[in-house]
Structures are given as C-alpha cells and as structure tokens.
Here is the input.
Amino acid sequence: MKSVGWAQFAGPRSSLRRISSVDGEILSEVLREQNETRHLYPLTGRDEQLLSERKTVTAADRTVLVEVPIDAPEEEAVAEHAEGTPPPEEKVDFRASLKMQALLARIGIEMGFRVWIPRNDKQAVLDQISPSLHSSFLNQLPLNYDDITLKTIEQIDVIWMRNRSMARAFEVEHTTAIYSGLLRMADLLALQPNMDIRLHIVAPDDKRAKVLREIKRPVFSLLDRGPLYENCSFLAYTAIEKISNMGHLQHMSDTLIEEFEEFPADD
Here is the structure.
C-alpha cells in the first residue's frame, strides 16, 4: 500500500497555537510540491496496522474487539539484536525457517496443491523454489470469510489449497519463544470453530518438548472447537526434510504427513 497524501500535521491539528511565518512558508512549499509531483510514499506493515480500522467479532453472548498483529520478522530481529537479544544464532534460525517454508511449499506443490505464502515471505521463498513451480503459488486466497479471519489466514506461514478449500496449514516456529504460531492457530479456531483443516506447528527437533508442552496451556485448551492439542500437531524440521527427499511425491497423498506428526501424550 502507498500514499500520495500527507496525514494532518500533529502540531497544527492538536493545538491552536500559531506557527511561525518561516515554518508556514516551508510547510506550504512542501505541500505545493507534493500536490504537483504526487510522489508515492510506501507504507510499512506497521503503518498499515496502525491505520487499519478496529474490528469487532460477535461472540456467543457479546461483541468483542479483536486485533490481528502484523508480523515483521526481519525488522523485529534487527531491533532485538541491537538491544543484545536474541543471540546471533536466531538470525540463522530465521533463514532456516524460510528454508522450511520453501520445503513445505515444494512438497505441497508436488502433491498437487496450490500454495499460499504470506506476502512478506513470498519472494524469499520463491528464490529457493524452481521457477517451473512458481505458477502454483497463489497471489490471493480464494476464500469467503470475514476480514478478521482472512487477515489471520493470510499470515499463516504455509497453506496447502485444494481448489477453494484449505487442506493443511503450517506455522514454522524458529525462535526461542514459540508462541506466535500457536496463537495464530488458536485465533483461527476461535474465529472459525467449524473449519475443516489440518493444522501443524513445524519447529526444530530440539523444540519438540517445548511445543508439545506449550500447546496444552489453558488458553489453548478452552476453545469452543476443543483443545488446540487435539487439532494441531507437531512436525520436526527433520521430518519435513525427510519427506522432501522422498521420490515420487506427485503420486503420494498428503496423509503421508500423518506418519510424521506428533500430538501431546495424555497425562
């Protein structure tokens, strides 16, 4: 999204104090120049989030205010690293997560699905995929849901689509705090409890115990659809790599995933 206009200047808008004639002339000149040139100023994801209107969802007994956070992983990684956290290896993990998205996309395409990748990640994933497969990537989702649901779905790391239906959704969790993917899956089930879709959290093998533990938190277990741990499985990075190395994926069913997925054990 881009803008050709200026937002109202905070000073004149919020105060009746007079600005100096020099400042006024500078402001007038800049506004005249912009009116003539119509220069486009790109909005960042954060800008779009702040400018988007607030949304509400009707629950069983009330209307509630909801917000769908917009991910900006590269910007967040730079900011956090500047403050000393997370450690440098997190940047390696971020690249590894893009590799996982690319592997999941290729597996899905070879099995006959069309694939959705979030716009922020799409080009980086396409760079790792053979150009012959690029036509199987969706530019927009052919789904008929409300705006909040669509915004939530659009941010899922990888979705396998069969015609106009979502078959499987994958969230790749690569950082130490593995909550974002779990929260997005829980958001989706809270918004659309009757949705028929297989959900998966994909993470490094050494995060297996953490994912299977966190997915059983009370906030994820009290959904109308039922506990998240019954509807969302864990897939290790090594499992995805093993599947991607299999031959003849075009002749296999996506139920192959079920041979590798894990659910939390009953206590």
Observations:
- DSSP finds twelve helices and nine strands in the chain.
- The chain has two domains: 2-42, 66-259.
- Strands lie at 2-3, 41-42, 55-58, 63-66, 114-116, 158-162, 165-172, 198-203, 232-236.
- Confidence is low (pLDDT under 50) at residues 6-13, 73-92.
